């Protein structure tokens, strides 16, 4: 089954997952979320597959988050819009396999997810 990878090329963990998939002959499709940001609807779909709220995928250590968003109290809908407009704030990589998804870290979890 093809694995979709929500990817940011500036992220070492995201690049490491791609390398692992490639080295292990696993077919995957890269979705570069920086060059092609996800819409609010696409984010909702990913969250449903992750079985998580939007708050689970926000990069709270990111400089942009700390400077612009940390002191605010946004709703889930507002965060969906913010992440759609600021994809660097999304945890990555996110792997999607059919109707399920997972955050691609640590790498050991990726191995389990792929084999399952």
Automatic annotation (TrEMBL):
It holds the Pfam family ArsC. InterPro entries: Arsenate_reductase-like (IPR006660), Thioredoxin-like_sf (IPR036249). It comes from the Bacteria. Belongs to the ArsC family. This is Arsenate reductase.
